[in-house]
Design brief:
The structure is a single chain. The protein is mostly helical. The chain has a single domain, classed as Winged helix-like DNA-binding domain superfamily/Winged helix DNA-binding domain (Arc Repressor Mutant, subunit A). 48% of the residues lie in helices and 5% in strands. It contains four helices and two strands. A two-stranded antiparallel ribbon has the order 1-2. α1 packs across α4 and α2 crosses α4. The longest helix has 16 residues.
Length: 81
């Protein structure tokens, strides 16, 4: 998903959910949507539960998370042997 499409679906506004990234037009955070999948929900279940969400909104959440991880540097706290 291109960044321009990503920004059509995900916004960051300090006045909405204290600036957490949310699906545009909702108060559903990217973190919340990803958590639904982490708990085992399917795409169809998420879309059925949250009628205002589109498949593109959900994919934008995944793209946002990928972009965030891509620009984050990870350093191990310790090396387990």
């Amino acid at each position: 998903m291109k960044n321009t499409i990503l920004f059509d679906h995900i916004i960051i506004d300090p006045a909405i959910m204290t600036g957490k990234p949310v699906v545009k037009g909702t108060r559903l955070t990217v973190q919340f949507i990803l958590g639904l999948f982490a708990q085992g929900m399917t795409l169809d279940e998420v879309l059925s539960e949250y009628k205002n969400l589109t498949k593109e909104d959900v994919f934008a959440c995944f793209s946002f998370a990928r972009e965030a991880l891509d620009t984050t540097i990870f350093a191990p706290l310790s090396i387990n042997k």
